């Protein structure tokens, strides 16, 4: 039975979230029918019945992809905010607080604002069952529209641009309920095969579902799947691809006195004479070589928005230099080195391995082998993810995660033992723990007194969340 307004109006945010978790029969239920029915009533003042389309007073950027979504959103947020625009963003999942999902100008909105949006959604959904993620997506879009009506937040500014990160796939993800002015698919690799398909071509078509006819569509990687190419040709999309239509180059910064300083430039292909290249760009604040590709994709988005939302070179420089994103090669400590990363699939693991190698090479004080705390979900290819690090790990600490989707630490151990036996390595360096704090304290007891050690914590958003909660308690 649907709660009445009087039953929901005094709910706290946590009460709302707990209630939503039990509202829908399954956690992941892809499809747009339910969300479409609710949003057309929820935002009726923005919906044109005759054309069956929404007309929002802000530009919409939708970002899908296997990896790189969060970093790209963060860079776009930072640059556009630096340029003075009012920027709404929606991302998932969160690491510490639910509010991280919905931001205005890089600041999470309050519990009160989210609860008010939840109440508006519940008042119009009638008997339609919505999932936890669908509630979040509708709340984010509703809050951005509420700014336009002057009903939300302390700022009186209306959103100029809204950035929406796809949660799963693209075509049937709740975010795809609205049409993007620009759609970017960052990468395509194997992940979430139970929902998206067993091969890259199938997954690519799901992610490319965010593309729209007569609107710019971007693919942010070099290895475009054949199915995506065919979609571009068949639908005659206004299409741009990394390395074909734009790229980047790194070169030495001769004016800097720092050791091995570098700058980079963003280059548009010669056929795009109307697109301006960007020179003398600072390295992104986010670490890892893959961040230059993410930054390049963000700049392509900005160039395609340039007529309506122009940004200056200074805005770009300041934005790239001040982009922060927790859980992406986040260095918690330097002595010993403690690094957190949400990498949880093969593609992300390989990129994380490269970043770890570069990090060790850049600082000769650290030992060449690392220690790992890892927890993973059972629907991931755990074998391939862990194999990216086998040859540089001195000790593994495997943890359980507090979610039904978690792979038990003992199962991860079995996978590792098989791999290590193949490498003729000793498996005495593998331990299992119920909680992150137990694993970390064990690391500190046996390894952590040396400032030369590196501890990598990765494998899932849940793993990094557990670590952040622990470290925040230690510092407070």
General description of the model:
The model is unreliable at 1-6 (pLDDT under 50). The protein has 16 helices and 19 strands. Strand 14 and strand 15 (337-340) form a beta hairpin. It has helices at residues 5-8, 13-21, 33-42, 69-82, 111-125, 132-149, 193-196, 200-207, 226-235, 290-304, 313-321, 346-362, 382-387, 409-422, 436-446, 461-475; strands at residues 47-48, 53-54, 59-64, 87-90, 102-104, 107-108, 161-165, 182-185, 216-219, 238-241, 246-252, 262-268, 278-281, 330-334, 337-340, 370-374, 393-399, 430-433, 454-458. It folds into two domains: 5-321, 3-Layer(aba) Sandwich (UDP-N-acetylmuramoyl-L-alanine:D-glutamate ligase), CATH 3.40.1190; 330-475, Protein-Tyrosine Phosphatase, Chain A, CATH 3.90.190. With 476 residues, it is α/β, with parallel strands linked by helices. The two termini are 42 Å apart.
CATH superfamily of the largest domain: Mur-like, catalytic domain
Outline: globular
What is the CATH architecture descriptor of the largest domain? 3-Layer(aba) Sandwich
**Strand percentage:** 15-25%
Mean pLDDT: 90
**Which spans have pLDDT < 50 for at least 5 consecutive residues?**
1-6
Distance between the termini: 42 Å
Q: Helical element count?
A: 16
Strand order of the largest sheet: 6-5-4-7-3-8-9-10
Tally the structural domains: 2
User: Helix- and strand-based class?
Assistant: alpha/beta
- From the alpha-carbon coordinates, what is the Rg to the nearest angstrom? 23 Å
- Strand segment tally: 19
| CATH domain class name of the largest domain | Alpha Beta
CATH fold-level topology of the largest domain: UDP-N-acetylmuramoyl-L-alanine:D-glutamate ligase
Helix content: 25-40%
Largest sheet: 8 strands, mixed
């Amino acid at each position: 039975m649907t709660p009445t307004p009087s039953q929901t109006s005094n709910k706290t945010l946590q009460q709302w979230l707990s209630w939503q978790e039990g509202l829908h029969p399954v956690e992941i239920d892809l499809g747009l029918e339910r969300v479409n029915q609710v949003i057309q009533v929820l935002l009726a003042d923005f919906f044109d019945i005759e054309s069956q389309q929404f007309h929002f007073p802000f530009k919409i950027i939708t970002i899908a992809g296997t990896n790189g979504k969060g970093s790209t959103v963060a860079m776009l947020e930072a640059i556009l905010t630096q340029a003075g625009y009012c920027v709404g963003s929606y991302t998932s999942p969160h690491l510490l607080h639910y509010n991280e999902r919905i931001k205005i100008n890089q600041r999470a909105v309050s519990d009160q604002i989210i609860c008010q949006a939840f109440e508006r959604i519940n008042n119009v959904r009638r008997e339609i069952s919505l999932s936890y993620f669908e509630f979040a997506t509708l709340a984010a879009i509703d809050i951005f529209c509420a700014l336009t009506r002057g009903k939300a937040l302390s700022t009186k500014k209306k959103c100029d641009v809204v950035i929406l990160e796809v949660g799963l796939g693209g075509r049937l993800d709740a975010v795809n309920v609205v049409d993007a002015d620009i759609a970017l698919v960052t990468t395509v690799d194997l992940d979430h095969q139970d929902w998206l398909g067993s091969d890259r071509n199938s997954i690519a078509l799901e992610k490319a579902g965010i593309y729209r006819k007569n609107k710019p569509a971007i693919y942010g990687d070099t290895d475009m799947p054949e199915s995506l190419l065919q979609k571009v040709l068949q639908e005659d999309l206004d299409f741009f691809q990394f390395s074909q239509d734009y790229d980047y180059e790194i070169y030495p910064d001769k004016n800097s006195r720092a050791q091995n300083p570098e700058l980079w430039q963003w280059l548009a292909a010669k056929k795009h004479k109307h697109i301006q290249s960007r020179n003398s760009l600072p390295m992104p604040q986010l670490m890892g070589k893959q961040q230059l590709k993410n930054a390049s994709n963000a700049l392509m988005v900005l160039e395609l928005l340039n007529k309506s939302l122009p940004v200056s070179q200074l805005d770009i420089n300041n934005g790239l230099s001040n982009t922060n994103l927790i859980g992406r090669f986040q260095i918690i400590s330097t002595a010993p080195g403690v690094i957190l990363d949400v990498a949880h699939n093969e593609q992300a693991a390989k990129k994380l391995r490269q970043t770890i190698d570069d990090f060790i090479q850049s600082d000769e004080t650290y030992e060449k082998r690392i220690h790992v705390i890892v927890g993973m979900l059972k629907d991931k290819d755990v074998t391939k993810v862990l194999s990216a690090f086998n040859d540089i790990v001195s000790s593994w600490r495997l943890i359980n995660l507090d979610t039904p989707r978690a792979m038990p630490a003992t199962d991860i151990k079995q996978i590792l033992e098989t791999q290590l036996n193949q490498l003729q390595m000793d498996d005495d360096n593998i331990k299992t723990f119920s909680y992150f704090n137990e694993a970390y304290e064990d690391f500190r007891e046996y390894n952590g007194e040396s400032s030369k050690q590196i501890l990598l914590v990765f494998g899932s958003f849940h793993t990094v969340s557990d670590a952040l909660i622990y470290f925040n308690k230690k510092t407070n």
